[in-house]
Amino acid sequence: MKFVSTRDKEGKKYSFTEAALKGLAPDGGLFIPEEIPSLSDEYTQEKGLAYEAYTILKPFFSGDESEGDLLSICKKAFSFPLSMHSDGGKDTLELYYGPTCSFKDFGARFLAFLMDGALKRRGERKTILVATSGDTGSAVASAFYETEMLDVKLLFPKDGVSGRQRSQLTCWDGEKVSSFEVEGTFDDCQKMVKDAFMDARYSSSLSSANSINIGRLMPQMIYYVHSSFLYEAKYGVKPVVIVPSGNVGNVTACYYAKAMGAPIGKIVIATNANRSIEDYIASGKFTPRKSIHTLANAMDVGAPSNMERLFAFYPEYDEFKKNVKAYYAMDDKIRQTIKEVWEEKGYVICPHTACGEFVRRNWYKDDPTIVVATAHPAKFETIVEPLVGKSVAVPESLYSMLGKEENVKTISPDYTKLF
Ligand SMILES: *Cc1c(COP(=O)(O)O)cnc(C)c1O
Predict the structure, then answer these.
(1) Contact (CB, 8 A) for 244 and 268
(2) Which domains does the chain have, with CATH numbers?
(3) Ligand 1 atom closest to 246 (CA)
(4) Where are the beta strands (DSSP E) in 15-135?
(5) Is 375 in the pocket of ligand 1 (CB under 6 A)?
(6) Is the CB of 102 within 6 Å of ligand 1?
(7) Model confidence over 156-198: pLDDT tens digits?
(8) Nearest ligand 1 atom to alpha carbon 352
């Protein structure tokens, strides 16, 4: 089983582990599986989530150096539950019971333990450099904190993250994971990362763990396979799966899960006001935009980087249009949906999940559906609490990161200050 670049499908082939260590293909493209295998006969939900994940991912590691470690990587990575909130077929897949309370824990933890094993074999240490405006940084910090061969440097824009997000970024020891508050914007942070990777003094010891890494994307298949089988067994139909999306990595994993044979009907992208995908479907022209700031800030992406993978999956516009549905929710609809769901169901959702729920209520109200809940509402309490008129209980893992002493350096946007 091999992986190739989106920009040269006939070109050089890489194993899963090599592709994860590289992050980006040398030609600037993204790694994709050469083919999507069918679910194996070994697939089972009977031995717990980690074992189920192992049976789903195993075909992608055939012949890979990490093949023999895969089960133990899955056991370390998927050490927390996922939950289906049932509501008569209008169900919600809750992916926020990991250490940092968003779905990003699934991908970040799998990548961390995969890389750690590979670097141990090589006797090499690396530093992960990550610019973050929210959930990615905390998921990466928390995951790589548990590794032996990797350190993390986190960069975030001053005044660019919420109070609780900030706590999750600055609660670390300052050595294994160090945080830098940059006097600049998120774009400045991203530029610093790029500059550091171009500087020969530092680049060989650096590695990335951003959402275009195939090692974060593939493990996200497991919850689509898991939840769609459960749904079909319970209701006797295949669900439409609605995925709140930004960089479209999470929804790409849903397409891969369906291609493997998971019983999924349509797949629907829900976005906030950043509508480049909706506009592409309507016009046939893909125009990346500047991102617009919204209440669902982890989805504020104007130029979704994983579109390149979706285009590789559906190269013809007609095919793309037939298979990819996308609808957006403006901020007023996000607020309205959080309020409605609370008043009607007594159920609290985060602003990202609200985009998905809005799409369900407007375009799929008579269909069997799963909306993916991407983060815990307590992470966005300043938005959610005034709408539901009560405080939202904070999960234990989030609680343990709040109120800790801050360990953070404030720096100007100059990448040499990171070293
Ligand atoms: C990252 C994130 C998203 C967007 O996921 P993509 O894979 O970038 O499409 C949605 N919701 C939350 C809470 C996130 O943290």
Answers:
(1) no
(2) 81-103+217-392 (3.40.50.1100)
(3) 9
(4) 31-33, 83-85, 90-94, 126-131
(5) yes
(6) yes
(7) 999 878 888 899 999 999 899 999 999 998 888 988 998 998 8
(8) 11
